[in-house]
Amino acid sequence: MAQKNIYPKRVSRNLSVPEKGSGKTPTFCSNFYRLRSKFINILMKSGKKTKAHKIFSLGVMKAPIALIRAIENVKPVVEVIKKPLGRKIIEIPSLIKPLRQESLAIRWILEGVRKRSAPISNSLLSEVKDALSLMGYARKKRDLLHKKVEASRINVRFSRFPTSPKKVLASANDVTLHLIKVRHSNPYSRSGKDSGAA
């Protein structure tokens, strides 16, 4: 007689995570709670999550719409990646995935907060207000990155989705639109489903 297996089956930890391309659109509340947990985790130092949660609550917990709009204003769309070409290292424009866009925006906001001399909760609120009005440290970092993309726009021909030799890209916005258009038109690209709205 075969002996029964008394050990429970291993359950995957990712059962509650929806699959990519499942068609489920996140609601405002789910989006805010996800951004809140990400914000608190990046703000946390030395494992002091309760302290980070308190700072977040005193700063921007009462204005969730302002926080989401501030992150949207600060999110970069394109970046430059360094790639060796012969004996040189060139900077090639590349699209940023949506989750990395959020992470960069939150990091830049917190860098601006730590550069201020006021209490951290007040500084967080001030930095979010500046980001809403397209100002502040985080917005400057985004504009600086887009200027770097604009300066290296000639190197788009070395990317995975090159331009034609006769096509001239005038600005960072043109680089973004070109990369999005060619990525979505390429059926063999792995990240063809990624959306990189400008």
TrEMBL record:
It comes from the Eukaryota. The keyword Kinase does not apply. GO terms for biological process: translation. Transmembrane segments: none annotated. InterPro entries: Ribosomal_uS7, Ribosomal_uS7_dom, Ribosomal_uS7_dom_sf. Keywords: Mitochondrion, Ribonucleoprotein, Ribosomal protein. GO terms for cellular component: ribonucleoprotein complex; ribosome. Belongs to the universal ribosomal protein uS7 family. This is Ribosomal protein S7. It comes from Entransia fimbriata. The gene is rps7.
